[in-house]
Design brief:
Helix content is about 35%, strand content about 20%. The protein has helices at about 15-25, 75-90, 110-120, 135-140, 155-175, 185-200, 205-215, 245-255, 285-295, 315-325, 360-365, 395-405, and strands spanning about 5-10, 30-35, 40-45, 50-55, 65-70, 75, 100, 105, 200-205, 220, 260-270, 270-275, 305-310, 310, 325-330, 340-350, 355, 370-375, 410-415, 420-425. It has three domains: about 5-100 and about 200-260, Adenylosuccinate Synthetase, subunit A, domain 1 (Adenylosuccinate Synthetase, Chain A, domain 1), CATH 3.40.440.10; about 105-200, Orthogonal Bundle (Adenylosuccinate Synthetase, subunit A, domain 2), CATH 1.10.300; about 265-425, Adenylosuccinate Synthetase, subunit A, domain 3 (Adenylosuccinate Synthetase, Chain A, domain 3), CATH 3.90.170.10. Helix 3 (about 110-120) crosses helix 4 and helix 5 packs across helix 6. Bound molecules: 6-O-phosphoryl inosine monophosphate and magnesium ion (MG). Magnesium ion binds near residues 13, 41 and 300.
């Protein structure tokens, strides 16, 4: 039986990871985030209440589970405090059950400002980011000028680093972008205030998580974004700036690959993408809009309408390979209820050539035509179905087609927003 399980997005994010992590948390002791920031929006519906989590692992909604924000995450302290307070106001306990890595990098006010200017300059080629300062924060991390959570505990160091960074940042803002600049004092005063509030949560999370794994605790690793938004393996440059794929778990938390038992990929029964960039199976007619309405496909973080399309096996094969997926979790199957026909893409055609493997070149991805196979839909409702055998035959055929063509079992199927709308075919924790 598995002890350390990764749950990550196999598409362009918004696959329904939050709900799945929440469902599996019951048997977990620890839930840990390893990358991304508050660009993520993980929706969990419990009874009549909807929670949207951005930075805090979805496990926080269960009492007595330890939640860890790893070093690979970028943290906007004001957003984190807002999220903590919002949860507390709704009766969710947040205290020593939340631990934040000393090595996680901080998103600073100038990161948002730089991102805004960079995106504006790109015009039509803009990435369509969430505007949270994620990219510039990771740029500073890689450029070795980032400010880390631990720096909040050392006021002198914090001040020095802000001052040093503002020398470059203000030059850029005023001379290149003709935008407002920042003073060390204003940022320092703001951040020292956050330090006081967050101090009790700050920890050596690498030591903590390795100890918990050694003790045989059940650990869930919660991915944000998805495989095709990964900085290395996604549709670069239309990606986020972190390692959303399985490799990110190790660097983003400080654990060895030998500690991970399995990786489960969350796959929406169709495909969505928010922001710019190639999306071969995007539906451009009114059926795409219908799918958006039925699936409630509006961003949980920015409220933007998501682009909708058919299931893409070329992209999914890539996700299986890059992440070494051991199981699949299909979500939102119920959204396909009542369709006459369902299309599935098995290849791309570009300039007379057929691609069965996900192309690396942006030009191919942008210009290719999907090669579809059509499947019969089902008329019965799958909403809320809890048993695999109770699914309509054609829904089962759809699931089995996915398993067969990817060579990976579908372990879990989500059939609605609620906690109980789920079919569990394989239990991953004891
Ligand atoms: P969850 O965890 C879907 C997208 C943005 C943009 C690109 C880069 O809820 O699945 P960024 O702000 O990260 O620099 O934006 O990535 N994006 C997401 N799309 N789900 C997400 O998170 C996303 N987080 C970022 O729309 O295209
Ligand atoms: Mg989301």
């Amino acid at each position: 039986m598995a002890k350390a399980v990764v749950i990550l997005g196999a598409q362009w994010g918004d696959e329904g990871k939050g709900k799945i992590v929440d469902a599996l948390t019951e048997k977990a002791d620890v839930v840990a985030r390893y990358q991304g920031g508050h660009n993520a929006g993980h929706t969990v519906v419990i009874g009549e209440e909807t929670f949207i989590l951005h930075l805090i692992p979805s496990g926080i909604l269960h009492e007595d589970k330890l939640c860890i924000i790893g070093n690979g995450v970028v943290i906007n302290p004001s957003a984190l405090i807002e999220e903590i307070n919002g949860l507390k106001e709704r009766g969710i306990k947040v205290n020593r059950n939340l631990r934040i890595s000393k090595n996680a990098h901080l998103i600073m006010p100038y990161h948002m400002a730089i991102e805004r200017e960079k995106e504006a300059l790109k015009g039509k080629k803009k990435i369509g980011t969430t505007g949270r300062g994620i990219g510039p924060a990771y740029m500073d991390k890689m450029a070795r000028v980032g400010i880390r959570v631990a720096d909040l505990l050392y006021p002198e160091v914090l001040k020095e680093k802000i001052e040093a960074n503002l020398r470059d940042v203000n030059f850029l803002l005023s001379n290149l972008y003709k935008a407002d600049t920042f003073t060390t004092e204003e940022i320092y005063n703001e951040y020292i205030g956050y330090a006081e509030i967050l101090a009790n949560y700050i920890d050596d999370t690498d030591i903590l998580i390795n100890r918990l794994l050694d003790e045989g605790k059940n650990v869930l690793f919660e991915g944000a974004q998805g495989t095709l938004l990964d900085i290395d393996h996604g549709t670069y440059p239309y990606v986020t700036s972190s390692s959303a794929t399985a490799g990110g778990v190790c660097t983003g938390l400080g654990i060895g690959p030998t500690k991970i038992d399995t990786v489960l990929g969350v796959v929406k029964a169709y495909t969505t993408r928010v922001g710019g960039g190639p999306f071969p199976t995007e539906i451009h007619d009114e059926f795409g809009e219908k799918l958006r309405e039925r699936g409630g496909e509006f961003g949980a973080t920015t409220g933007r309408p998501r682009r909708c399309g058919w299931l893409d096996m070329v992209a999914l094969r890539h996700a299986v390979r890059i992440n070494g997926l051991g199981g699949l979790i299909i979500t939102k199957l119920d959204i396909l209820d009542g369709l006459e026909k369902i299309k599935v893409c098995f290849g791309y055609e570009y300039n007379g050539k057929v691609y069965e493997d996900f192309p690396k070149e942006l030009s191919v991805l942008e210009g290719c035509k999907p090669i579809y196979k059509e499947y019969e839909g089902w008329h019965e409702a799958t909403l809320g179905v809890n048993e695999y055998d109770a699914l309509p035959d054609n829904a089962k055929k759809y699931i089995e087609m996915i398993e067969d063509s990817l060579g990976v079992p579908v372990d879990i199927i989500s059939t609605g927003q609620k906690r109980d709308d789920i079919i569990i075919r394989k239990v991953h924790f004891d």
